[in-house]
Design a protein that fits this description.
about 190 residues; mainly alpha
Length: about 190
């Protein structure tokens, strides 16, 4: 009978929206989301020991193209191998998250082991920071899945900010190297 009653109601969508906006304004919603994410929190980048990076004795155009091909191959491998796990990042599936964490650790290890020419050092460091922050994000998702934290969204936001900022640097560095060596039109063949 309740469903029959609901079907007889004449609901005005515009009036409903107007009422909802009076009860809870867009500004109220934005403020609540910002509070939950703690958008004013201090963002601390992961500390990376640059002495652990593999360095190439080579430099110049060919060394940069070779490094970009290997780095691209590592990133594409990760994206392909972890695609399913990435899609379930916010699930409660702890074994899935553990698998994703293992894949993240593997790609981070590769980033450290790829021999970067000196002119790509900032690119290597920012890529390592981004993948480190992604590992921290996975750990926060794991803690949430296990019920070990009550502050998940702020922790996830923190890591997303770092990842976003580091990939801005990665993009700028690739652009800088591309302009310096005139390789923008050169197809980079990923090396796996």
């Amino acid at each position: 009978k309740y469903l029959q009653y609901l079907q007889t109601l004449k609901i005005d969508p515009k009036a409903s929206k107007a009422l909802f906006e009076q009860i809870l304004t867009e500004q109220d919603i934005k403020k609540e989301v910002e509070n939950e994410l703690q958008v004013n929190q201090t963002i601390v980048e992961p500390q990376i020991d640059a002495t652990k990076f593999a360095k190439s004795a080579q430099s110049g155009r060919d060394a940069v193209v070779d490094y970009l091909a290997k780095l691209t191959g590592s990133a594409l491998n990760f994206n392909t191998n972890a695609k399913e796990e990435n899609q379930a990042l916010f699930s409660q599936d702890v074994s899935n998250l553990n698998g994703l964490k293992n894949q993240q650790e593997e790609v981070l290890k590769e980033v450290f082991q790829l021999k970067a020419p000196g002119e790509a050092a900032k690119l290597q460091e920012s890529t390592a920071k981004a993948f480190t922050a992604y590992g921290n994000l996975i750990e926060a998702a794991l803690a949430h899945a296990k019920g070990e934290t009550n502050n998940s969204w702020a922790k996830l936001y923190h890591q997303y900010v770092i990842i976003n900022e580091q990939f801005k640097i990665v993009s700028a560095e690739v652009g800088r190297l591309s302009a310096k060596y005139k390789i923008a039109d050169l197809p980079i063949q990923p090396i796996y």
